[in-house]
Each structure stands twice: as structure tokens, then as C-alpha cells.
Design a protein that fits this description.
By secondary structure, the chain is an all-alpha fold. The protein is built from 2 helices and no strands. The longest helix has about 50 residues.
Length: about 80
């Protein structure tokens, strides 16, 4: 969590520095490189989030299947 907050703070700081740089007549090369890095990181975070969502869906699907099997077994046990 702290790592995410630091990353968000870094993003905001870079955005403010870029805004100041453009207001003064152009952004320094270092800031444009930093912005490219941040955009790459955001793409990676988005991919990771998609994978986590997929894993959560699969886990829920497996849980539902196990619960359905347990219900079937309970029902079959009642029929005996």
C-alpha cells in the first residue's frame, strides 16, 4: 500500500514539474523521460490488474463449482 502511495505521489510530482516546465517554455529532457517511464508503469499496473481480475473470476467460478458439487452430494445422500 505504501509503495502505491509513493508511486502516486511520484506521478503527481512529475505532472506538476511538467506543468511548470511547459509554463516556462518547455519541459526538460529528464521530465519527458520520467513521463515515459510513468506511462510504461501504468501499462504494467493495468496488465497486472487484468490478471488479478481474471484470477478472481476463476477462483469464484471454481468455488461455485465446488459448492454445486457439495449440494449434489448432499441431495444424493438424502435420496439414499
Amino acid at each position: 500500500m505504501l509503495r502505491r502511495l509513493r508511486f502516486a505521489d511520484y506521478c503527481v510530482q512529475t505532472a506538476l514539474e511538467l506543468e511548470l516546465g511547459f509554463a516556462k517554455g518547455g519541459a526538460p529532457q529528464e521530465l519527458t523521460h520520467r513521463l515515459e517511464f510513468l506511462l510504461d508503469q501504468l501499462v504494467l499496473v493495468r496488465r497486472r490488474f487484468r490478471v488479478l481480475l481474471w484470477l478472481a473470476r476463476m477462483r469464484n467460478r471454481m468455488r461455485r463449482m465446488v459448492l454445486a458439487d457439495a449440494r449434489r452430494l448432499r441431495y444424493l445422500k438424502l435420496l439414499e
